[in-house]
Amino acid sequence: MKGKFFILFFIVLLMTVMALVACTPSVPLPDLVPANPPGMFGYCNVDDSNNLIVYVKNQGEADAPVSWVKVQFSLTAGVQDISSAIVAIPAGETKSVSFAIPSGCFNSDCNFTITVDSTENIVESDELNNTVANGICIG
Fold first, then answer.
1. DSSP code of 46?
2. Are strands 131-137 and 110-116 parallel, antiparallel or unpaired?
3. Which domain holds residue 84?
4. Which alpha helices (H) appear in the chain, and where do they start and end?
5. How far apart, in Å, are the Cα atoms of 29 and each of 1, 65, 79?
6. In the chain, how many domains are there?
7. Is 15 inside any structural domain?
Protein backbone atom coordinates (compact mmCIF):
# COMPACT_ATOMS: atom_id res chain seq x y z
CA MET A 1 0.00 0.00 0.00
CA LYS A 2 2.84 2.42 0.84
CA GLY A 3 4.44 1.65 -2.53
CA LYS A 4 1.25 2.56 -4.43
CA PHE A 5 0.87 5.77 -2.43
CA PHE A 6 4.50 6.71 -3.16
CA ILE A 7 4.04 6.07 -6.89
CA LEU A 8 0.81 8.11 -6.95
CA PHE A 9 2.48 10.94 -5.00
CA PHE A 10 5.48 10.88 -7.36
CA ILE A 11 3.25 11.02 -10.46
CA VAL A 12 1.24 13.95 -9.08
CA LEU A 13 4.46 15.76 -8.14
CA LEU A 14 5.97 15.15 -11.58
CA MET A 15 2.82 16.39 -13.35
CA THR A 16 2.73 19.51 -11.16
CA VAL A 17 6.36 20.36 -11.99
CA MET A 18 5.74 19.79 -15.70
CA ALA A 19 2.68 22.06 -15.60
CA LEU A 20 4.60 24.82 -13.82
CA VAL A 21 7.49 24.67 -16.28
CA ALA A 22 5.11 24.77 -19.25
CA CYS A 23 3.26 27.76 -17.79
CA THR A 24 6.34 29.89 -17.21
CA PRO A 25 5.96 32.82 -19.61
CA SER A 26 8.95 33.63 -21.80
CA VAL A 27 10.37 37.11 -21.43
CA PRO A 28 10.22 39.10 -24.69
CA LEU A 29 13.67 40.24 -25.79
CA PRO A 30 15.02 42.53 -28.51
CA ASP A 31 17.01 41.10 -31.43
CA LEU A 32 19.21 43.54 -33.31
CA VAL A 33 20.44 42.73 -36.82
CA PRO A 34 22.13 44.74 -39.58
CA ALA A 35 19.52 45.51 -42.23
CA ASN A 36 20.19 45.78 -45.94
CA PRO A 37 18.12 48.65 -47.37
CA PRO A 38 15.68 47.62 -50.11
CA GLY A 39 17.34 47.88 -53.51
CA MET A 40 20.84 48.14 -52.02
CA PHE A 41 23.65 45.68 -52.65
CA GLY A 42 26.15 44.67 -49.98
CA TYR A 43 24.74 46.87 -47.18
CA CYS A 44 26.10 49.85 -49.12
CA ASN A 45 24.13 53.05 -48.72
CA VAL A 46 26.36 56.11 -49.10
CA ASP A 47 25.08 59.67 -48.75
CA ASP A 48 26.29 62.79 -50.61
CA SER A 49 28.94 63.42 -47.93
CA ASN A 50 30.52 59.97 -48.46
CA ASN A 51 29.11 58.58 -45.20
CA LEU A 52 28.08 54.95 -44.96
CA ILE A 53 24.53 54.77 -43.63
CA VAL A 54 24.06 51.61 -41.55
CA TYR A 55 20.56 50.35 -40.83
CA VAL A 56 19.80 48.33 -37.71
CA LYS A 57 16.55 46.45 -37.32
CA ASN A 58 15.08 45.24 -34.05
CA GLN A 59 13.36 42.03 -35.14
CA GLY A 60 12.73 41.03 -31.53
CA GLU A 61 9.62 41.28 -29.40
CA ALA A 62 10.87 43.96 -26.98
CA ASP A 63 12.30 47.46 -27.39
CA ALA A 64 16.09 47.73 -27.56
CA PRO A 65 17.84 50.45 -25.54
CA VAL A 66 20.61 52.66 -26.91
CA SER A 67 23.44 50.46 -28.16
CA TRP A 68 26.69 50.59 -30.13
CA VAL A 69 27.33 49.75 -33.78
CA LYS A 70 30.83 49.08 -35.12
CA VAL A 71 31.97 49.18 -38.73
CA GLN A 72 35.31 47.61 -39.53
CA PHE A 73 36.65 49.04 -42.81
CA SER A 74 39.28 47.13 -44.80
CA LEU A 75 41.84 49.65 -46.01
CA THR A 76 44.98 49.27 -48.09
CA ALA A 77 46.96 50.08 -44.91
CA GLY A 78 45.05 47.63 -42.68
CA VAL A 79 41.77 47.65 -40.82
CA GLN A 80 40.05 50.62 -39.20
CA ASP A 81 37.26 50.24 -36.64
CA ILE A 82 34.74 53.03 -36.13
CA SER A 83 31.99 52.81 -33.50
CA SER A 84 28.92 54.93 -32.93
CA ALA A 85 25.92 54.87 -30.64
CA ILE A 86 22.50 54.24 -32.14
CA VAL A 87 19.25 55.41 -30.59
CA ALA A 88 16.82 53.06 -28.86
CA ILE A 89 14.93 50.92 -31.38
CA PRO A 90 11.34 49.86 -30.68
CA ALA A 91 10.41 46.26 -31.48
CA GLY A 92 9.86 45.77 -35.21
CA GLU A 93 11.45 49.08 -36.23
CA THR A 94 14.63 50.04 -38.08
CA LYS A 95 16.92 53.00 -37.32
CA SER A 96 20.09 54.26 -39.00
CA VAL A 97 23.46 55.64 -38.01
CA SER A 98 26.16 57.10 -40.29
CA PHE A 99 29.90 56.49 -40.47
CA ALA A 100 32.46 58.56 -42.35
CA ILE A 101 34.14 56.24 -44.85
CA PRO A 102 37.89 56.54 -44.27
CA SER A 103 40.19 57.49 -47.12
CA GLY A 104 41.87 54.45 -48.60
CA CYS A 105 38.79 52.27 -48.36
CA PHE A 106 37.96 52.45 -52.06
CA ASN A 107 40.81 50.43 -53.55
CA SER A 108 38.94 49.85 -55.86
CA ASP A 109 36.03 48.64 -53.73
CA CYS A 110 35.29 49.39 -50.08
CA ASN A 111 34.86 46.25 -47.96
CA PHE A 112 33.53 46.43 -44.42
CA THR A 113 31.98 44.44 -41.60
CA ILE A 114 29.03 45.70 -39.57
CA THR A 115 28.52 44.57 -35.98
CA VAL A 116 25.41 45.65 -34.06
CA ASP A 117 25.36 45.60 -30.26
CA SER A 118 29.13 45.55 -30.62
CA THR A 119 29.67 46.02 -26.87
CA GLU A 120 27.30 43.10 -26.16
CA ASN A 121 25.41 45.08 -23.51
CA ILE A 122 21.93 44.03 -24.65
CA VAL A 123 20.46 40.65 -23.79
CA GLU A 124 18.92 39.50 -27.08
CA SER A 125 16.82 36.56 -28.18
CA ASP A 126 19.59 35.69 -30.69
CA GLU A 127 23.16 36.80 -29.97
CA LEU A 128 24.60 35.06 -33.04
CA ASN A 129 23.15 37.31 -35.77
CA ASN A 130 24.83 40.61 -34.90
CA THR A 131 27.54 40.60 -37.59
CA VAL A 132 27.44 40.91 -41.38
CA ALA A 133 30.69 39.69 -42.86
CA ASN A 134 30.36 40.82 -46.48
CA GLY A 135 29.51 44.50 -46.70
CA ILE A 136 30.86 46.11 -49.88
CA CYS A 137 30.55 49.35 -51.80
CA ILE A 138 31.68 49.02 -55.39
CA GLY A 139 34.23 51.72 -56.28
1. B
2. antiparallel
3. 32-137
4. 2-23
5. 50, 11, 33
6. 1
7. no
